[in-house]
Q: What sequence folds into this?
């Protein structure tokens, strides 16, 4: 099946620095990718929808200037956490739609392994 | 706002027994539902899905049931194994929308 790769899997940074997380769709093209955030023992919360060649669509309450998303190609989306602070420490997970899985025409998302960000 | 929720945050079953994980949804416009499994430190993995025009769908050791009358979704896992221990999320997709909204999650523990 399709694979979504994230890098880095873990990152530790100092407060005030910026961190970039990459999300790649391997062996398939993804015009749309999704970025989720997950705090410990909580569910996944959608942050934004990344669209290839256009601006990302952010969910309500997500600061677009803080979480910069770039989807420059059909296989790569990046999330940059700018001027990171300890409260940004979280598990960030990207996903892309994998056609042909599930019931016909289904919107099954394949997820990456996640990137754990720790801001000191 | 509308959301997907779960009745039980934790569930423990004996290895070999069957387990049932429940999910309640409130958005009547949702027409597609998915169950995901998430192991510690990993991303969610697809288990099984169902459309709103279906009541039941079966996979290998798993069955998803959908009751639209009471807006209830369940995941049945037969003959549970230690590897089934994980957090299980239901997710819903509103008709015409691209994004999935995730429920709270249930931690399933399989006891030896």
A:
């Amino acid at each position: 099946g399709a694979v979504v790769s994230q890098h880095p899997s873990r990152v530790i940074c100092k407060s005030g620095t910026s961190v970039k997380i990459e999300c790649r769709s391997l062996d398939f093209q993804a015009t749309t990718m999704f970025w989720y955030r997950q705090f410990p023992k909580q569910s996944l919360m959608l942050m934004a929808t990344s669209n290839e060649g256009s601006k990302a669509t952010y969910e309500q309450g997500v600061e677009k200037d803080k979480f910069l998303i770039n989807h420059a190609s059909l296989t790569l989306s990046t999330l940059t956490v700018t001027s990171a602070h300890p409260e940004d420490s979280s598990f960030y997970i990207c996903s892309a739609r994998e056609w042909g899985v599930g019931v016909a025409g289904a919107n099954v998302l394949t997820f990456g392994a996640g990137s754990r960000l720790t801001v000191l | 706002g509308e959301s997907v929720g779960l009745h039980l945050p934790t569930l423990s079953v004996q290895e070999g027994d069957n387990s049932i994980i429940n999910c309640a949804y409130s958005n009547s416009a949702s027409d597609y539902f998915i169950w995901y499994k998430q192991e510690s430190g990993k991303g969610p993995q697809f288990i099984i899905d169902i459309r709103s025009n279906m009541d039941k769908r079966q996979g290998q050791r798993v069955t998803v049931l959908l009751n639209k009358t009471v807006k209830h979704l369940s995941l049945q896992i037969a003959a549970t194994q230690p590897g089934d221990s994980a957090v299980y999320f239901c997710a819903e997709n509103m008709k015409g929308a691209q994004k999935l909204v995730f429920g709270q999650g249930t931690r399933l523990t399989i006891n030896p």
Q: What stands out?
A: Chain B touches chain A through 25 residues (CB under 8 Å). The CA atoms of residues 40 and 92 of chain B lie 22 Å apart. Chain B is about 0% helix and 55% strand. The longest strand of chain B covers residues 30-38.
